[in-house]
Amino acid sequence: MKIYKFLSLFFIAITLLSFSSCSSRDDDDNPQDTTPGNLQIKFENGFNNLGNIVLNQTVQTSSQGQKHNFSALKYVISNITLIDENGKEFRYNENNPDKGAFIIDQADAVAGVVYLNLNEIPKNNYKKIKFGLGISQSAYLLGMDGQAEFWNRAKQKGMSWSWAAGYVFVKLEGKYGTGSATTEFMNHTGNMGKVTENNTPDLYREVTLNLPTTARVNGKIRPSIHILADLNQFLSGEKALTLTESNAMMMGSSQHLVDVTNNLTKMFKVDHVHND
């Protein structure tokens, strides 16, 4: 009887050990497998880190007591870079807008979220993400090479001035007011032409964000990075701004739009990461 119990326990232990070993092999990364994977980035626009702005409906009150809403909310994301645990960078189609630039348009949001799908990402564990707000001068100065497709997309989305003048980086339109939002505004930021030659501010900005959970990219796992954009930063950011008759209808890179750009650069944060 004792021998029977011993053998039963022995076989149970072997079975559990084998199952655990198989599970470990399935779950652990195989260092010999270098198959690239895919990555999804979700952008959710909101106020005060509460997402899902509804165009023409969601009203926010700024730190200066000014009410405002958006009828158009669009911005360009480019030069996405993933940074691994050792600080090594993978640059996704750097300065190649045709393949590496995207327009985040709130009108395209599904349940408040705009989805970007990146492919052929090297297998790795990534701890940070970096991206550009707008289009860099390096990409713009390439001319039509590498950005003809994106130029057409930008033109269709109303995110360009003209070919000689370049791209709109951020397009914010809506209404503002004190008691209620009734007066129209239009703030379009972006570079017009060659900033050095024209002696104008370069409004392209880069943003680096820490990931609260490591994004584990491999051939079996497609991580999803959920980024919240707090549009309260527009008027209530690092520099409190007030819309007036003098700045409500502005395009380009005036000082007001430099301030808007600097505020919006701080609006992004990674809310969470899914590894599945």
UniProtKB/TrEMBL annotation:
Provide the leader sequence positions. Answer: 1-20
Looking up InterPro entries in the UniProt record yields: MbnP-like_dom (IPR046863)
User: Keyword annotations for this protein?
Assistant: Signal
What Pfam families does its record include? MbnP (PF20243)
Q: Which PROSITE patterns match?
A: PROKAR_LIPOPROTEIN (PS51257)
Name of the molecule in the record: Copper-binding protein MbnP-like domain-containing protein
Superkingdom, according to UniProt? Bacteria
Q: Where does the Copper-binding protein MbnP-like domain lie?
A: 37-247
